[in-house]
Design brief:
101 residues, alpha/beta, three-stranded parallel beta sheet, two-stranded antiparallel ribbon, 4 helices
């Protein structure tokens, strides 16, 4: 957080990459609210790992990942569309316009 505070103090734009696992995937509103207060550039990465051929217990499940992204999209549409940049949303919109990412 000290690095983030230093970047903010000097008005240096930065991107936050957040790993989404089985626990934090349950809190999309809280996570997005926190991140949007820090930066205009946000990325989410699903944590999916295997453990001996099975999906590891801490991995985000497909249903959790989908619900997490739907919640983020809903908040973004209501409050931040065009002002905050969520990489997955930006990429999806560009693809819908026929612009390769």
């Amino acid at each position: 957080m000290k690095g983030v505070e230093l970047l903010m103090k000097h008005n240096i734009p930065f991107n936050i990459l957040t790993a989404v696992n089985d626990i934090n995937s349950q809190y999309p509103r809280e996570i997005y609210s926190f991140l949007r207060g820090l930066t205009d550039y946000i990325q989410f990465l699903p944590v999916v790992e295997t453990d001996g051929g099975n999906i590891a217990h801490f991995s985000v499940r497909p249903e959790q990942w989908g619900k997490f992204l739907r919640e983020i999209l809903g908040i973004w549409l209501k409050h931040d569309g065009g002002r905050k940049h969520v990489q997955l949303i930006d990429a999806a919109l560009e693809n819908m316009k026929g612009i390769p990412c």
